[in-house]
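The data layer described in this paper is built around a simple, fixed record for each protein. We quote a single record here, exactly as it is kept in our systems:
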Amino acid sequence: MFAPSQPTVSLDIFQTPGSLLANDLARLSRPWVRDIAWLLHAPDMATLDCPGRPTLAELGLDRHGRRRAWLAQQETLDADFQRQRLKRRSQRLGIYHETLWQWILERAPRTRLLAHNIALREDGQTLGELDLLYASTQAIDPPCDDRETDVFHVELAIKFFLGLPEGPGDRYDAARWIGVGSFDSLAIKCHRLQSHQLPGGRSPAARRQRQALGATGSLRQRIIMPGCLYHPWHRRLPLPRLANDSAAQGLWCHRSAWSALARQLPEGTGGHLLIKPHWLAPPTSEPSPLAALEEALAQRFSDLGKSAHLLLTLPDGGQCRVFVVRDEWPPALPLPPPGLLPSAR
């Protein structure tokens, strides 16, 4: 009789950081500035009927020397950033992500933040909120504030979705990629962005808000949604239809499978237990040995009973994010949204 094959970890998903990002991170020490550098290079998760994050050129940060100097300048502004962050009175990752983009668009050479968290009201009722508005300057060097052209309405999200081998729809359905909390999915988020959040930016209430701000340029819209898609640790899934081909990818496993995953990693592999809100750029500290990670996982699941987000690093420098979840996960599946708008792919 043949012995049943053992699950094999997908080591091919470990990737070395891109050279541009690695060079930008090399001289940065403050976690929030490192996270900004990560955001400047992070691919959008989804391909929708709307552009994604501003390019480095649109921000005026495409030249390596200028970008490195700009990032170094941000390191000197830690007290200002912390004051701005504390105004939101929240430790949520989504709020932190919004604060980072507000900071970027207020201070990048070719953009100017106009407003953020803009309430839309009609007849005394709140209809929704726009994440932010910013203006771009002409692509000249140096940029001139009196030659603003387009006004951008941006909706922001940062998402981490775990893929399921079985679930709603077919094997390419975005409804099979769900959040750790089991109440959100790539399908649900994309549907809400396209059917509710973006149309709100073109409503009469939004037009009045732009006029009050003196934002008279032509309106353009963007969705900024970085994040990561996690495959089961021993099985690569096809990316869903809505996913960007260059989206960041990682692995997930149940708590009881962690030891089997760890045994298959090369000798000398280490890692970090990522702590919110700093889930973006790699930490500056040396990776801990796998034995220390096991101890951290044991304590985390004993104390909190929740998931753990790891960044593993191979001896050759390859890195991979790994979500470790409870053995009972997922407790439920979020229903697919009705009438999901098709992707632009």
